[in-house]
């Protein structure tokens, strides 16, 4: 069971299962929205994330054009989760850095590396894609089954 919290501890959360995948996204939207070179998101069904505490949500641009909702602690402003509106709120992207043990969720894949910062070096054993990718070619069968349960085959 993975747990996490915001910077001030006002919002705590628990993941009710392992994530389906952990994405290290290097797109310019993620760089700008996090103020960093990339974001590390653990993808999990929204219903499998239980959280408590005051949150505030804001919508930001995304590559799909439909936007994403970022959930932050209403007290300290730390971003905890995001949800792409193209996925109808069924999937939650948990910001790995807010986990109590972020080392439990290393990246499974690097995405949008075409816009990664040139000084970021990628490990050769983790798949990397210039844009998004075909999850059927990367994810294990059990994780694909969870995806299919949310969005269909």
Automatic annotation (TrEMBL):
KW Metal-binding (keyword) present: yes
One Gene Ontology term of the molecular function aspect: metal ion binding
Recorded superkingdom: Bacteria
SUPFAM superfamilies in UniProt: Mss4-like
Keywords noted in UniProt: Lyase, Metal-binding, Zinc
Residue ranges of every copy of the CENP-V/GFA domain listed in the record: 2-120
Pfam families on file: GFA (PF04828)
Keyword Metal-binding assigned: yes
The family this protein is said to belong to: Belongs to the Gfa family.
Protein name: Uncharacterized conserved protein
